[in-house]
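Handout, page 2. Input:
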Amino acid sequence: LFRGFLFYYFTLWFPHINALEKTLLTSLIFGLGHLYQGWKGIASTGVAGLIMAGLFVLNGNLLLPMIVHAIGDLRVLLIFGSKDRPENAPREAITAGAT
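Output:
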């Protein structure tokens, strides 16, 4: 939605800039929106924004970037998979914590 909104308004406000310039500009703004995460957060979200903007420009709609974004968010399941759930902990660890 961020990308679709900005691309639309940049087309209205700055009709002379091309798709590459819009891609770079929206990615920069998206990265700066993550200033609270520090420079690494700005850089990583800026690069992710650049990838998503590229997908948007190449595909012509937001569906593909949205799907790729959702798949990227699902990586949390790999980080916090079933091994970290309390019900999968050894029984000794559960009973030791209860006493």
